[in-house]
Each structure stands twice: as structure tokens, then as C-alpha cells.
Amino acid sequence: MRNALVRRTVLTASAVSLTLLATACGSDKADTKADAKPSEAVSSPAAPAVKGKTDAEATALVVTQADLPDQIVSAEGAAKAATESAGATVDKAECKPLMQAQSGQKVGTATGIGRTTTKAKPKEAAADASPEDKLKAGLEALGATQTLVSVGSYDAKGAEEAFAALKTAAAACSGGYTVTEGGEKVKYLDVKPGAAVTAGDEAAAFTLTMDLDDGEKSANHFVIVRKGNALATFYAFGVTAEQPKTVIDAQVKKLG
């Protein structure tokens, strides 16, 4: 999701809340026949290089509403956000892969990418609920975790390289960085390891602290999972954002 939009969303929800609620090697055996000659040794053919998918093909790998019945899924919103954030810049070159992944841009040498957004469906208050309970339900809906899901496809070892680049960027940017988008600056105070994720062929998780000004902060979650030559990224934000385990599990399952 666009960094500036994330910040505005969290700021709005925080303000309302504060006001109203206090990721086999095989061995070849030599021919042991007596009449075998060195020139007759047959080597295994090299495996064909893996080819990446197009944008349309990668989009078909992304979770949909049918995969996440308890979430509100919107591919249109994610595509629009990625387009609008294409001109964003970051103050530290080493942090560029993080900025790209956060806003649904292609990272590294991706041949194609698909995106969507998810948000937990709000729990409606009972018809006879008190005004306070209805207000509480409304605030919980407003502050629910939203997640930008992106799936990039790569030729050969491109996904492995992109995964490594994101891990390197997270380490290099542990002290924070600033993204400028549409004239608005969004500051991340730090990047720290997040709750461990076991999925795909390799996975890593981080927590990014966003500066909301006036002393307020927001903890956002960033998870990367590589499955074969596909790299899935998850950027989750909200007033009380949580690591989107349900979304991650569903997406990794869809990747096969």
C-alpha cells in the first residue's frame, strides 16, 4: 500500500480511537562395466532454466475472496495503490527494495507481479447492542489489520536473489529510513526482526515502526516468503496491526 496512505489511515484510526476509547543434491555413479570407456560416459542433461510468469499469470497465483472467506479482498485497490506509488523515493539507496515491496512494486528482476489487499471482516454488533458496544465494534473495524499482498515471479534464481536483497535491506535499514510520496514524507524509525514465520522454501518477518508525529507510533508487519521462483510479500498495517498469519497461510497454499 502506498506509504503515505498507510500513514494517513493509521493516523485517522488512531485519532478516532484515542478520542472515543481511552524458506537434494544427487550423486552420479560411474559406469563400472568392464568394457566401458571414458568417452562412453553419459552425463545427465542440465535441467531447463525456470521461466518467470507474466503479470497476468502471476495475478492468477494471488489469493482471492474464495481463498479468504473471513477477509475483504480487493485486487483493484492494490493495483491503484501500486500505480500511484510508482514515483515514491527513499532517502537511503539500500532501503529501496523495502520501499518497493511495501508499495507493491516489482523487486529485483521480477518478470511479472500480482497484487491484492485484504482486511479482516468486521464483527457487527448485535441489533440490540448498546451504543457503547456498537461504537466499540465500529472502532475495531476501523483499526482492523489491512494487508497488501504481492506475488512476484522470476526467471531462474531471481526469486532467491530478491529474497536475499530484501533481507539485506532490512538489516541495512534497521536504523530507519524516510519515504517521500506525492510530496509527503513518511518516516520509519526502525526495522526489527518480527515473529518467526515457517512457510515456503524460505521466509523472514520484520516489524517496521512508523512515525505518526506528535510522539505517536505505529508497528507495521512485513513478511516475505519464497516458494520456488515466486516471492510473496505481505505488508500489514493498522492501529493494532497483527502479523497476517491467515493471509500468509492461504497465499503460500495457493502457490503450491
Tell me about this structure:
The protein has 256 residues and is of the alpha+beta class. It is built from seven helices and nine strands; from the N terminus they run ααβαβαβαβαβββββα. It has helices at 3-20, 55-59, 75-84, 96-102, 131-142, 158-172, 245-255, and strands at residues 71-74, 89-90, 112-120, 146-153, 177-181, 184-193, 202-211, 217-227, 230-237. The protein has a nine-stranded antiparallel sheet, sandwiched between helices. Helix 4 (96-102) packs across helix 6 (158-172).
Question: How are the SSEs placed, and which strands pair?
Answer:
Layout: H1 3-20, H2 55-59, E1 71-74, H3 75-84, E2 89-90, H4 96-102, E3 112-120, H5 131-142, E4 146-153, H6 158-172, E5 177-181, E6 184-193, E7 202-211, E8 217-227, E9 230-237, H7 245-255
Helix pairs in contact: 4-6
Measured distance between first and last alpha carbons: 25 Å
Instruction: Describe the sheet with the most strands.
Output: 9 strands, antiparallel
Average pLDDT number: 83
Question: What Rg is obtained from the alpha carbons, in whole angstroms?
Answer: 22 Å
> Strand-and-helix sequence, N→C?
HHEHEHEHEHEEEEEH
Strand fraction:
25-35%
Number of helices: 7
Q: Uncertain runs with pLDDT below 50, 5 residues or more?
A: 14-43
Major sheet: arrangement of strands: 1-3-4-9-8-7-6-5-2
Q: Please bin the fraction of helical residues.
A: 25-40%
Broad structural category: alpha+beta
Tally of strands:
9
